[in-house]
Write a structure and sequence with these properties.
Elements (H helix, E strand, L loop, with lengths): L30 E5 L8 H8 L7 E5 L4 H8 L6 E6 L3 H10 L2 E4 L5 H5 L3 H8 L3 E5 L2 H7 L4 E3 L3 H13 L2 H17 L2 H17 L2
Parallel strand pairs: 1-2, 1-4, 2-3, 4-5, 5-6
Helix pairs in contact: 1-7, 5-8
Length: 207
Amino acid sequence: PYQYGRERTFVNNGSPVSRVTPEYHRSDTPHIVWVGSPRLDRGGALLFDALHQIDSSVKIDIFGQEHKRILEKLDGLPPKQEVTNHGWTSHDVCLQATVEADIAYGVLPPRTDWVYAPLIKIGEALAGGTIPLISDFPGNRQLAADAGEYVKPCGDEIAQKIDWLVSLSDSEFKTKYKTARARGEAVSWSKIREEFAQKVSRSHSFS
């Protein structure tokens, strides 16, 4: 209990499984999607550092409001990396792009609110059976559980993780797809809403 004599409970972000129909695929060129606020201080610097280190050639689609410094960094990437900046698009477009990708990028530096609050895009990746590549933070682990691929927020570890994911066999990759979708169903928004309603009901029953 806290100062008002009530117990506090935590309601997590969920996964929009009802809005997504995933179908297993694996791109010939490893396909990464980055959706959100593409800025250097929100994981961009870490991603671009990793792209200079990875052995693999990858395709990356970036969705979100462009920032000048991001556009400048794109020009300096190795030619083997195919990066497309789509700018601001609708949520439905972002969801479909996430479904079509192999890996959903969501690595952030250790700011306090990011450490304990999982990203909404993690649930969207899980719904699509897309592997979330995310920071090893408690909030992310609570949401993604064993479906996440976790890294310390540094370029070399991100690079190693991308190369490792690319090296997986088709059967190993398909297992990760199934694990992601299963976790998405376990934390679906319908279940989260039901849990929230029950907690509110219990809270009011003691008022």
